[in-house]
Amino acid sequence: MLSEAEHRFLLDQRVAHLGTADLRGVPQVMPVCFAISQCALYITIDEKPKQPGRTLKRLRNILENPAVSVVLDRYEENWDLLGWVMLRGRARVLSDGPEHDRAQEMLRSRYAQLRAMDIARHPVIAIEIESVRSWGHLAPRV
Length: 142
Prior knowledge:
Layout: H1 4-12, E1 16-21, E2 27-32, E3 35-36, E4 40-44, H2 57-64, E5 67-74, E6 83-94, H3 98-110, H4 112-115, E7 124-136
Antiparallel strand pairs: 1-2, 1-5, 3-4, 4-7, 5-6, 6-7
């Protein structure tokens, strides 16, 4: 589903922005770390401080309304180099299992900070990519 240029662009980005909405359509956008395969994007819940005993709003939103968007963008002062990719899809929350474990390994290999965290016990958001839109300069930075 992703073109080669879009896939390379995603691999070059370090932060994505996850958009979710609750049942009433109230949106929330959060910056997230991610790992990408050809047809899915994965986001882990890490060990940075959260409100104890409370399920994160992004997880509650996904359970209520699994339709999500993810935007990855590159800003440059030279506007000829601007680019973005938007993914739309359906999200699932994985608590365990082979896909959960593979996703956590992909995320650990991408972000050194996650290697020191016990993320295996945390959920993973798995987004099945249904559509891709992109615009601008997607080639790697020079």
